[in-house]
Amino acid sequence: MTIMRFLGVMLMTIFLAPGSPALAQAVADGPHLAMRLVAESERPRAGQPVTLAIETRPEAGWHGYWSNPGDAGFPASFGWTLPGGVTAAAADWPVPETLVVAGLMNYVYERPYAPLVALTVPAGLANGIALPIRLTLKYLVCTRTVCVPEEQTLATTLTVGDGAITPAARARFDAWRRAIPRPLAQAATWAVTDGALRVAVPYPADAALSDAYLFPAAAGSIEPAAAQTVERVGDRVIVTTKGTPIAPFAAVLRIGAGQGLAITAGPGVVPGAAGSGGWVIAALIAFAGAVLGGLILNVMPCVFPILSLKALSLARANTGEREARREALAYAGGVVLVCLALGAIILGLRAGGATIGWAFQLQDPRVVVVLLLLAVAISLNLSGLFEVPMPRWAGGAGASKGVGGAFATGALAAFVATPCSGPFMGAALGAALVLPVPAALAVFGGLGLGLALPFLLLGFVPALRRRMPKPGAWMGRLRRILSVPMWLTALALAWVLGRQAGVEGMTLGLAAALLAALGLWIGGRRQHKGLGLGWAMVPVIASLGAVALVRPVPAGATTATAGDAFSESRLAALRAEGRPVFAYFTADWCLTCKVNEKAAIERSGVQAAFTRNKVAVLVGDWTDGDPVLGRFIERHNRAGVPLYLYYAPGAAAPRVLPQVLTPAMLEALGR
Questions:
Q1: Of 523, 651, 603, residue with least CA distance to 246
Q2: pLDDT score for 428
Q3: Boundaries of each Cytochrome C biogenesis protein transmembrane domain copy (predicted)?
């Protein structure tokens, strides 16, 4: 019990002491809450729930209390007397009002209100059986100067029947339900900074908001009497107040008169308040992390060959300063534009309620087919089988020549980099999802800038170009060597396709790749004779038909191999047992995830250490974009996978491990 609530209860106790004239008069005039038990259907169907409303009308000048009364008062207690097999759920309470008396904050109802209770009628009951329902309510009712504990017994009798609801009853219950806070699918986050508790609630930037207030569902998270300031930052509502939560807590955000959202807030990143400059610092840090993460992406096997080929084109062409800079800027433009487009799509879908993150498109096997065909085409191009024709405006016949070719190459590099993640990148993109939209897009642009940075340096620093080897026959050999990582990328994408769409889907994708390769081979033969690709593009275009035919396998058909399947209930059970828990979140299309699993997690030494230290392992497979896992990942400030968490016994929050794991790091867990 907080000090404020203790003082409130003491004041009430003194005021209501025996012999108090005010109490005597109040008791004589009670009850002060007119109550009635109303059923949505007088003839509920056996085996189905029926909703009961406790229709309550406070007497003028009096008020009842919410399920969390605030600094003073106490919540109503429910005593049900029900027929055998009938059960009653906890009451759903309407959005309350605030009332400050003598510095104490109360969460109350001064107008008519109706808590709703779901009553479950057991299956197998014959029509016509009577169901007597009896409810004894003990509650506190107050004015601004006096409080009285009261008790009422409400009763009704239902009859098992067809579950029919009259239009009048439906309209009345619909009105009551509109006053019940709607559950918010996305999780809110909280952080304590400089003694202030700040809570960020996902809420569309263009949605109406008035008279906003955050009601804690239970004592101990938010100080009821503390002032609250509410500001909007992008698609978040930021509430700043006082409180000392130590774990996720439930609350209700009032968004208008009698309207609210039921939220769960966990510790995490909260963007700075508008005008305070706090989010600017967070955005700058996220931008720097995104640039560094994008720079690291250049060494990934799906990006490095494209970058190398583009760099070698500068050496081969022996271009002047102006042309080199133009190509560098065009390449960077293609990279940044694709990253910005993906970021805008992610932010737009999330504003609409979707739970997605970086590489979300790879959750669709049809996109994987497109990437597979691209990887095969790039591999064949690097192998020298054919050259990519470019229009005159793009620089002629060379695959990577001219401004247009550089722009297309940069866009391609950014698109094929989406399965990859690395150090700094996950945290940066996770932070972007809680920043204002312009700042979030800047972070995605920073990722593109980092990805384009090596080629930008080559274009703008002549000394770097002079250090590159002189053109020669070695360039053709290197180009064929660079086809190897691209072939490995194509192989990995085929495996991902098999996991997502089954053997049939993988076979269809490989058949499409074979058809495309056949067309490109014929086209390459024509190019050697001085002709264009011509009709050889027909099978290449036909191969795209596989995109429309591939379908994902049923949910749950693919499973991760190391550890038990993750669920929050399983995690809670293991933590209740005092077990250390290593939880990791992966996807078949995540290259970094698979490298960590093979190089660290699945190593025999690591598995033996887990067994020795009794570390439980939970695996969250996000291959198909499970929204439940997506929301959990988001609560830990990540925009996607990989995510590695270690829960030490008794710790309030998990330790977030780096995105690049080592066996030694994992073997030390649980010691």
A1: 651
A2: 67
A3: 288-493
Whole-prediction pTM: 0.51
b/e per residue 531-545 (b: at least 16 CB within 10 A): eebeebbebbeebee
| Pairing of the two strands 196-202 and 236-241 | antiparallel
Residue 646 in contact with residue 655, Cβ under 8 Å?
Answer: yes
Alpha carbons 43 and 132: distance in angstroms, whole number: 12
What average pLDDT does this structure show over 536-558? 70
Measured CA to CA, the distance from residue 501 to residue 400 in angstroms comes to 34
- Rounded mean pLDDT, 503-522: 88
Buried b (16+ CB within 10 A) or exposed e, 365-396: bbbbbbbbbbbbbbbbbbbebbbbebeeebbe
Instruction: List, in order of start, the domains of the chain with CATH numbers.
Output: 3-179 (2.60.40.1250), 188-267 (2.60.40), 278-549 (no CATH), 564-667 (3.40.30.10)
> 3-state SS of 176-204?
HHHCCCEECCCCEEEEEECCEEEEEEECC
Return the beta strands (E) in 450-580 as ranges: 564-565
- Assigned token pair, 434: 């809680």
3-state secondary structure of 317: helix
* Enclosing H/E stretch for 657: none
Going by pLDDT thresholds of 50, 70 and 90, the confidence category of residue 79 is: very high
Contact 274, 230 (CB under 8 A): no
Instruction: For 364, list phi and psi in degrees, rounded to 5.
Output: -105, 120
Q: Is the pLDDT at 393 greater than 60, yes or no?
A: no
Least confident of 2-16, 39-53, 245-259, 573-587: 2-16
Tell me if 441 sits within 8 A of 343, measured CB to CB: yes
Burial class (CB in 10 A: 0-12, 13-18, 19+), 303: buried
Q: What is the pLDDT of residues 261-279, one digit of tens each?
A: 999 998 877 876 444 455 6
Smallest CA-to-CA distance from 659 within 360, 346, 414, 429 is with: 429
